Amino acid sequence: MSRIFAITTLHHPWQCSSLRSFIEYTRRGIWFLVWASNEQLKSAEHLTFKQAGSPSLTKMDAMLTKAMGAGNVSRLTDIVDGFNEPFIDCLHAMTHGNPVSVRFPAMELTKLFDIPRFVERAEHEQNIFRLLVYRRLTKMPQGEIWNVLKTAHDKPQLLRQEVLKADADLKKSGIKIAWKSL
Q1: Number of domains composing the chain
Q2: Is 103 within a domain?
Q3: Which of 105, 117, 169, 179 is spaced 20 to 30 A from 17 at the CA atom?
Q4: For residues 34 and 142, is the Cβ–Cβ distance under 8 A?
Q5: Nearest to 134 by CA among 120, 122, 148
Q6: Separation of alpha carbons 166 and 159, rounded Å
Q7: Do residues 4 and 116 touch, judged by C-beta distance below 8 A?
Q8: 76: which DSSP letter?
Q9: In a 10 Å sphere around its CB, with 0-12 CB exposed, 13-18 middle and 19+ buried, how is residue 11 labelled?
Q10: Is residue 179 part of a domain?
Q11: Is 25 or 112 the better-scoring residue by pLDDT?
Q12: In degrees rounded to 5, what are phi and psi of residue 79?
């Protein structure tokens, strides 16, 4: 995710819904990549928005958190001060114009959400996804990938270094993949 895009757009309530979608779809991509059975992958060809074929967002988030050794918990359900609503629900409310969402602009999003940390977290989430994809492409066993993530998931610089190593390994093996970002 481009730092410029996130900083300029996350000041608008409708763009925070994009962050929610980003979180959801990276989690769903990881779930299909790591945990989905062959039958679930086959049925994914016929899924709809009503039937996503994967567990709930918070369950997928908890599965990922547990796999990285940080407990079986989803921080997406943490309550946002001043609203007494889970973080992910606050982002979702902005998507649909729920009554709580009309309070967000009046309170200024920068007072509710730490935008620079949002951007950092989005980049970190993207790197977790990239590492999983790249290492799967290099045929690294899933257990070894989790071991790397267990040590790097809460250290952004280390995670970025692991992604760069994985990218270099892909290039050495002749697999061409281009990850576009600014």
Answers
A1: 1
A2: yes
A3: 179
A4: yes
A5: 148
A6: 10
A7: no
A8: G
A9: middle
A10: no
A11: 25
A12: -80, 135
Q: Which amino acid is it at 92? A: H
User: Which residue has 């973080």 as its token pair?
Assistant: 87
Nearest to 149 by CA among 172, 175, 129: 129
157 falls within a domain:
yes
Q: Which residue's entry shows tokens 């977790």?
A: 128
172/178 Cα distance (integer angstroms): 14
Q: What are the distances in angstroms from CA 61 to CA 48, 73, 76, 114, 158?
A: 21, 8, 8, 20, 21
User: What confidence tens digit (pLDDT) does each residue in 37-55 have?
Assistant: 888 777 777 766 566 678 8
User: C-alpha angle with apex 67: 178 to 23, nearest 5 degrees?
Assistant: 50
Burial 12-38 (b: 16+ CB within 10 A, else e): ebeebbbbbebbbebbbebbbebebee
Task: For residue 136, give both structure tokens.
Answer: 């799967």
Residue pLDDT, tens place only, 137-158: 999 999 999 999 999 988 999 9
Backbone dihedral angles phi then psi of residue 12, each to the nearest 5 degrees: -110, 135
In a domain, 181, yes or no: no
Which residues is 86 bridged to in the sheet? 79
Domain of residue 26: give its range. Answer: 3-172
Amino acid identity, position 50: K
pLDDT tens track for 91-104:
776 655 555 555 55
